[in-house]
Amino acid sequence: MTLQLEQSLDPGHGAAAAASARSAAVRFLKDAARAGRPVTPVTADIVLLVVSELVTNAVRHTPGPCTLHLSRYEAGVGIDVSDTSPDPPVPRPPHVNGAGGWGWILVNHLAEELSVRPTPEGGKTVHAYIADRT
User: How far apart are CA 2 and CA 22, in angstroms?
Assistant: First the structure.
């Protein structure tokens, strides 16, 4: 895979982090399109959902800030969310009343590649790769 575009940001830690991350992802995808590397609407929707879920999980389940890093590859988009906890994500039973538990299930279902690796600072990075879809 060849790296085409990337953008990093720190969406902060709090209720607005997922919204900030989604906005950054929208700008990133628009920049990719302007650079001649557009994704399909289906791919864009999946990228935005995975970004929202990973950042929400980092905000809900870790004590510190998180960082979003997006990469446009030849045939897909890489999403990396780093946070301050060394603990890997743990699937939880989903709740039908809106109390959560669906995010990690969705990310596992939508990503072609998914990994968790430690960061030098003692936290972790969750990496998801979303292939271009039609």
Answer: 24
pLDDT of residue 66: 87
Distances, alpha carbon 80 to alpha carbons 17, 95, 108, 134, in Å: 15, 26, 14, 23
- The full set of domains in the chain, from first to last, is 3-131 (3.30.565.10)
In the chain, what is the greatest distance between 2 CA atoms, to the nearest angstrom? 42
> pTM value?
0.90
CA distance 64 to 78: 23
Distance between CA 54 and CA 126 in Å, rounded? 8
**C-alpha separations of 56 from 3, 16, 81, 104 in Å:** 26, 9, 10, 10
Q: Going by DSSP bridges, is the β-strand pair 66-73/3-12 parallel, antiparallel, or unpaired?
A: antiparallel
Q: Determine the Cα–Cα distance for residues 86 and 75; give it in Å rounded to an integer.
A: 30
Q: Which residues contact 46 (CB under 8 A, 6 or more apart)?
A: 110, 130, 133
What is the band of 10 on the pLDDT scale with cuts at 50, 70, 90? low
DSSP state of 16: T
